[in-house]
Amino acid sequence: MAHNAFYAQSGGVTAVINASACAVIETCRRHPDRIGKVYAGHNGIIGALTEDLIDVNRESDEAIAALRHTPGGAFGSCRYKLKDIETHRTQYERLIEVFRAHDIRYFFYNGGGDSADTCLKVSQLSEKLGYPLTAIHVPKTVDNDLPITDNSPGFGSVAKYIAPSTLEASLDIASMCATSTKVFVLEVMGRHAGWIAASGALAGNGVDEPPHLVIFPEVAFNREAVMARVDDVVKTCGYCVIVVSEGARYEDGTFLADSGNTDAFGHRQLGGVAPTLAGMVKQDLGYKYHWAVADYLQRAARHLASKTDVEQAYAVGEKAVELALEGKNSMMPAIKRLSNTPYAWTIEPAPLAEVANREKFMPREYIREDGFGITEACRQYLSPLIQGEDFPPFENGLPKVAKLALHRVERKLPDFTI
Which candidate among 53, 164, 305, 369 keeps its CA 20 to 30 Å from the CA of 188? Predict the structure, then answer.
């Protein structure tokens, strides 16, 4: 007998999260004897709690296929963390209530570490309540900080955006440095892990090639040492290019750009490390500077997505459904690297208990001894992840994106306040 499936997106979206959505939906459609309808949660898990469900079966095959080359979150994402089961049991019971009302037996949650935790908790409660639900986490995060998996879908495309951006901006600064800007600072995402900042280092290959400094969260920020390095580079090369992670912090753990606020997941709100650092350059060294913040541009740039990343994002979505149909529960399809040259990988299941609420940081052997760049081992790790182009179709000079109808499913339960 066929039962229905639920799919939702969580946290910050990526250039390829919809490729995973495409894979989940297309794979479900290939098994009509096992999976009936696919419902998507509008705005992530909130859609399940409020019974705001989208009937994906009413979308055409063409529209679903177009998700593969569409950035953003097609069904809406959210930053909403389910609290612990003991004190907020009613939320989890509500989820099971909604799933029972719509005969949902498969739960696919597409997100990062917090989403893995939610997926694990939903699985645990369904078991306690005796409701047969198979919960699979579909990995995604631009931060590349999920454990077990070799890399996280979404990261490769951000890296492919940041590396060329660093290269191109460096050529601009080099052209003008004799009479104008001496220092350029590019701020990239990465709250606790410096993977995205590291990808900027792919733009050059040597201490005197830009970026001249990469500032990681994993290396305590020392203003005196950083300014001395900037000054030396400007005097040697004529200009200095810096890639800095938004999570750059001092020895005591304080962020350079802590706004004092937190988001819905309890994470410190960061912003403005580039102008903060540029201000230090001006104050300490007097050099003219420019700075930029890649912000949403880096994670939305589907027009320059990594082909490797697109393929992996689709593969984990496809494998998620296959694991569910095999009866595997509380699992995440993880990417396993088989070799660097030639680059080869496969997908293997990883227990959610080993993924939830854990982060993967840059290993010290990936960071240059002086703390301002990457090692050859890091370059060999990063390089395959940005390989290949997977351009979307264009129309009138702009990328064509999926346009979904987003038909709502009729509600069967009373309203629920989150």
Answer: 369
